[in-house]
């Protein structure tokens, strides 16, 4: 069973990362395809993410997932709050019975360095970016903002202006965030693996 990482956050909230080693036929035998995904690997990621939801909570009703206009998947009865992310051969999901959640998983790639001015404001660049900043550090900052974006789920978010990164606490693996669009103070949790970065929000 290719569970790469699993974390029981509390009694009501669980998180997991799945390393995709199965065929599409395996997932199709367990999970319905909710939308027309034409690219074979993206279709495999899509199915693996939904499979992971029920792995985390066996009674998760994935057949009842709906897609909002913002492309956020949700359950109309809010029996569970959930978020899914994909990257390469990995799918990540977080599920909670009681709290809104957002998750993002990323592989550090050169593109993140090229677009840093699009998602970091001047204050954040002064605080976090220096000549010694590596690609994984930049990827973590992007992933933190992406997890907040997915937690919010209503679209129309400017990463530079609405998701403001504060202090990073390496001892607790958290980053303080001011979500100025709603005035909420959030804490993004993160994990760094050899070749992956994971960020998630619970609120």
How do you describe this structure in short?
This protein is 30% helix and 34% strand. It has 203 residues and is α+β, with helices and mostly antiparallel strands.
CATH architecture of the largest domain: Alpha-Beta Complex
Oligomer: single chain
Whole-number radius of gyration? 17 Å
By secondary-structure content and strand pairing, the structural class works out as alpha+beta
Task: Summarize the amount of helix as a percent range.
Answer: 25-40%
Instruction: Tell me the strand order in the biggest sheet.
Output: 7-11-10-9-8
Q: List unreliable stretches of 5+ residues.
A: none
Q: Compute the number of structural domains.
A: 2
Walkthrough of the structure:
With 203 residues, the chain is an alpha+beta fold. It has two domains: 3-99, Alpha-Beta Complex (Ribosomal Protein L22, Chain A); 105-202, 4'-phosphopantetheinyl transferase domain (Ribosomal Protein L22, Chain A, Alpha-Beta Complex). The chain is built from seven helices and eleven strands. The strands form three sheets. A five-stranded antiparallel sheet has the order 7-11-10-9-8. β8 and β9 form a beta hairpin. The longest helix has 18 residues, at 135-152.
Per-chain topology:
Layout: E1 3-10, E2 13-19, H1 24-28, H2 40-56, E3 65-67, E4 73-75, E5 81-87, E6 90-96, E7 101-106, H3 110-114, H4 116-119, H5 122-128, H6 135-152, H7 159-162, E8 163-169, E9 174-179, E10 184-192, E11 197-202
């Amino acid at each position: 069973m290719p569970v790469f990482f699993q974390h029981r956050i509390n009694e009501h909230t669980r998180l997991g990362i799945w390393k995709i080693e199965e065929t599409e036929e395996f997932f199709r035998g367990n999970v319905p395809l909710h939308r027309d995904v034409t690219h074979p690997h993206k279709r495999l990621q899509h199915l693996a993410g939904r499979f992971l939801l029920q792995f985390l909570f066996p009674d998760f009703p994935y057949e009842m997932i709906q897609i909002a206009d913002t492309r956020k998947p949700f359950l109309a009865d809010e029996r569970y709050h959930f978020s899914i992310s994909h990257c390469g051969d990995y799918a990540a999901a977080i599920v909670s019975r009681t709290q809104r959640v957002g998750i993002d998983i990323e592989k550090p790639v050169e593109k993140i360095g090229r677009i840093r001015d699009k998602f970091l404001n001047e204050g954040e660049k002064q605080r976090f970016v220096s000549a010694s900043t590596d690609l994984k550090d930049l990827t973590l900052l992007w992933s933190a903002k992406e997890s907040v974006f997915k937690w919010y789920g209503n679209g129309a978010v400017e990463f530079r202006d609405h998701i403001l990164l504060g202090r990073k606490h390496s001892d607790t693996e958290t980053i303080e965030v001011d979500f100025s669009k709603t005035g909420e103070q959030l804490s993004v949790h993160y994990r760094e693996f050899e070749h992956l970065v994971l960020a998630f929000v619970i609120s």
